[in-house]
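Data availability (excerpt). The following record was deposited with the supplementary files.
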Amino acid sequence: MNWVQIKGMIEEADVVIEVIDARFVNETRSRKLEEVADELGKTLILVINKCDLVSRSKCEKIKKSLEKMGYTVVLFSARRRWGSKILRNALRFIADKKGLEKIQSVVIGYANVGKSSVISLLKGKASARTSPTAGFTRGKQWVRVSRKIRLLDTPGIIPREESDVRLALKGAYDITKLKDPELAAYELMQSLPREVITEHYKIDSGGPEQMLEELAMKWNMLKKGGTPDTDRAARRLILDWQRGKLKY
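Predicted structure:
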């Protein structure tokens, strides 16, 4: 999806909802999207999704920081099913403030930040199909949330200049297509507190290479001769991260 298409969808809407991953707030924010929304005079709401995967205190700190910058922020967890009432009320408030009988909002964000899950929770049932696989939403679709609210689900925005490794760690890249999963796994392990990996998987190794080897042995992922298949182990580790199994 290019920026001409994105701009066209924003022009159709009254409100822009940017869905952001709580684990990678700065990395999954689109400054260009926010600039376009501002240029077109559209109200912007930042929905910080996957808040169940980080501490509550961190989420509140993120919220306060963004609100000081003038943004409307909603903390959200589609998996734990909280935040939808606050978001729904925010949309109704904007509609009343603008004097609108119906309000239309476009939901935009990186692939796999949980846009469709946010819409489904607002609707109260699986109105927008969801999948943990990056790029699942192929085209735009309007979803009626209530008599007063309509949302537009869209494909994810994926900046082409980023490496496959960084996109994979953000959940915005299909892990089956990743050329160097071990590099991505090492970067993930180095970015997290060590105990996140060791306590979740009940392992006690040294550096990232040793940890990945131990995980391969633990999962019985072996090559011929009994050596650890670290490539397969790396893919599973990253997939666990993308699906929200690792918390910190």
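Summary of structural features: Residues 84-98 form the longest helix (15 residues).
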